[in-house]
């Protein structure tokens, strides 16, 4: 699923996070992740950029499963509680508003006990055929 070389989900990206996202209900997305030592910023704490990349990807998978080619135009992240190295977290995303060109998505990361670690609100812009061509994505559905 997704793209083999993607930094977050690509199974062929040696340096990637290798997160497997799956559909949850009609439009939702779910995944799980274990923070490793090489994902830290401050000692023992997952880097906020890694957290943001995971939220961005979960958001993108909502549109991916909708069958449109979209890019993140806006991503607003709240970091609520540190994600510790060695800690498993659960990731979830779902659409909140769909218009002709923009899909708004809420995503969250929680501990296995359900405690909120981070959440985001994003706007995904659905690309026109011309934009797909300009970005080299014309061969995608
Ligand atoms: C399977 C998973 C694959 C992995 C995917 C990972 C997801 C990603 O991280 S994608 C990479 C990161 N994102 C990007 O690189 C996107 C870079 N940005 C762009 O390419 C462009 O700015 C793009 C396409 C978002 C918008 O460009 P464009 O379509 O020309 O916008 P434009 O025509 O000016 O505006 C259209 C409307 O959207 C609005 N808009 C444009 N940009 C934004 C924005 N950033 N935020 C909010 N609204 C915006 C405009 O205000 C306008 O609204 P209205 O029609 O009401 O006036």
TrEMBL record:
<keyword id="KW-0472">Membrane</keyword>
<protein>
    <recommendedName>
        <fullName>Acyl-coenzyme A thioesterase THEM4</fullName>
        <ecNumber>3.1.2.2</ecNumber>
    </recommendedName>
</protein>
<dbReference type="InterPro" id="IPR052365">
    <property type="entry name" value="THEM4/THEM5_acyl-CoA_thioest"/>
</dbReference>
<keyword id="KW-0809">Transit peptide</keyword>
<keyword id="KW-0966">Cell projection</keyword>
<keyword id="KW-0378">Hydrolase</keyword>
<comment type="similarity">
    <text>Belongs to the THEM4/THEM5 thioesterase family.</text>
</comment>
<dbReference type="Pfam" id="PF03061">
    <property type="entry name" value="4HBT"/>
</dbReference>
<feature type="domain" description="Thioesterase">
    <location>
        <begin position="44"/>
        <end position="116"/>
    </location>
</feature>
<keyword id="KW-1003">Cell membrane</keyword>
<keyword id="KW-0443">Lipid metabolism</keyword>
<dbReference type="InterPro" id="IPR029069">
    <property type="entry name" value="HotDog_dom_sf"/>
</dbReference>
<keyword id="KW-0053">Apoptosis</keyword>
<keyword id="KW-0276">Fatty acid metabolism</keyword>
<dbReference type="InterPro" id="IPR006683">
    <property type="entry name" value="Thioestr_dom"/>
</dbReference>
<keyword id="KW-0963">Cytoplasm</keyword>
């Amino acid at each position: 699923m997704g793209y083999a070389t993607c930094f977050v989900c690509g199974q062929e990206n040696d340096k990637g996070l290798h997160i497997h996202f799956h559909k949850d209900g009609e439009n939702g997305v779910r995944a799980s992740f274990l923070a490793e030592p090489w994902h830290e910023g401050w000692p023992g704490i997952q880097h906020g950029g890694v957290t943001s990349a995971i939220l961005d990807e979960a958001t993108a998978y909502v549109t991916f499963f909708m069958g449109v080619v979209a890019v993140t135009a806006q991503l607003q992240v709240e970091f609520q509680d540190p994600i510790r190295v060695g800690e498993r977290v659960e990731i979830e995303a779902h659409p909140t508003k769909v218009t002709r060109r923009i899909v708004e998505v809420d995503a969250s990361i929680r501990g296995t006990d359900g405690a909120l670690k981070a959440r985001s609100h994003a706007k995904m812009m659905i690309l026109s055929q011309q934009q797909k061509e300009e970005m080299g994505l014309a061969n995608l559905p």
